[in-house]
Amino acid sequence: MDTQFFVSLLVILASFAIYIGIAIYNKARATSEFYVAGRGVPAVFNGMAIGADWMSAASFIGMAGTIMLLGYDGLAYIMGWTGGYLLLTFLLAPQLRKYGRYTVPEFIGDRYDSHLARFIAAICTIIISFTYSIGQLSGSGVVIGRLFEIDAKLGTMIGVILIAFYAAFGGMKGITWTQVAQYLILISAYLIPVIFMSLQLTGNPIPWISYGEIVGKMGELDRELGISEYFAPFTNDTKWQFIALMLTLMAGTAGLPHVIVRFYTVSSMKAARWSGAWALLFIGLLYLSAPAYAAFSRFILMTNVAGSKITELPEWTQPWIDTGRLQLADENGDGILQWNELIISNDIVVMATPEIANLGVFVIGLVAAGAMAAALSTAGGLMIAISSSFAHDIYYRVWKPEATEKTRLNVARWSIAIATLLAGLIALNPPGAITQIVAWAFALATGTFFPALVLGVWWKRSNSKGVIAGLLVGLIFTFSYIFAAKYGGFTILGITDTGAGIFGAVAAFLTNIIVSLTTEEPSKKIQEEVMDLRYSEQMVFKDGEVWMVNGNKKT
Amino acid sequence: MKKMDRKLANRYFKERTRYMIIYFVVWFIVSYGVVLFAEPLSGFTLNGYPFHYFMGAQGAIVTFIILLFINASVSDAIDKKYGITDSSDKRLRRGKVINN
Question: How large is the ipTM?
Fold first, then answer.
């Protein structure tokens, strides 16, 4: 327990105080003139809130490390997680906004007019959000483990308790202004170290311009070491894996229940488009910086750490060795640490680099606070998606429609507690790096919800039997491929577990289309509701005609 | 509520769809297109980066952001052209929104 511990803890607690303060302030305001004055949150701030919701431990803690270890191949994550916003904003968000339901299972249940489809969609939501939350818990384990200088496993257990409380406390999530604060803390915690490193290494404070030079220099270092160049394409995986992973992450973005829900709460289709644009701008700020973060970290490790004497390793190494995520071993016994004797886990790169670059106790504390904001805000959203799917869509709508509000609330609380505990148990021995675990959640969303939602919005002929078969086939296909690739070594065209979504999506689209075409058409009412989604909110499709709703004074 | 000419409504939908297809073509070229031809493209450098790396780390993302902003403002312009105004938007949304 040194100065660093107290400073980090203080910064984390201070950031929490800000979130709680805003939540209390907003609650107080909500009861007064807040409703009367109209509730439109400007699209800019809504974009920030979506950004905070969206950027999880995978983006903040895991991504730069993944890029550092994979080089160019890691950029599939960068393009995949940003390019998906086009699918979401063009194909789904405004249309789902017009349809006006509050959760994804609700949309699927009503659009396809089937309780069974609603039930399966709720199960899929739970599976996807659960998988996603394993990554968040694993991330909080890294942060807490480093903070207390304990094994990441113990850190994960503390994280489980924190997240269970956080999600059950409820109010924290869904308040736009709290999320705006979380975004601001998260993004400054990410940008400040990158800017400092850029200054240290190149003398230029703008990392996005300066790191090209570093990338070039690393290529030379790699050639000297006789390993493949950092920027060389497809050195770790095949080109097809790159494309499959990118597609999976893009389609998954458009199909993730807890992200889509964010667009239901905007005020109009127009606001959905603008919020999507602002959200990607704010998210892009972090995603443009992650490759710079990766390049600087790798360069510092290669030039400052590798090559130093094994007995004179810098102070920062010990706490990270204690978490079990860093290994330094002088394998050839020459007393000097070589680049290939340094094994660093993807998941500690972002957290460890500010220490390696000696950026000072405050910056290191800020990065810890930012990482906690990313992991907690997303985990909170995921737990709420799980509990609403179980308590609302399954328990109340399908199982026990006569349940009182109080029982439903209890069921919701218990489902959060149980889901967090189960996810925590798995996160104790994470089955993969954070980005990899999260990529599985995206693969499952790509294989299930993406086809169901796209066909549901754009093809009126798709019916309940089609969607039920499609969801099931997509789920089973994606699951089997992930397991076969991860544990059985089975691959097609070198596509591994993280790219599994592409197979699930193709299978689900085909199943949905074939089954729909061979069974009866949906009712006329449903077909008209789907046609209606083509037009703006002021236009209503009814009885084969388009009607203009006159909202303005000209009537 | 008044009936709208079916042809006009179709034109609205077609115009929106046409723009969307253009955006998706650009989206495809800057991401998948560059990845497909990564090896030949790595010969060029831009700002110190090999071109394929630049597109993956910066070029594609900036293009995506620009496309989303273009879409938002072009869609607004199309809505305006067909007489859909923001004021009616605000009236409609009442009762349909949950508190965020």
Answer: 0.89
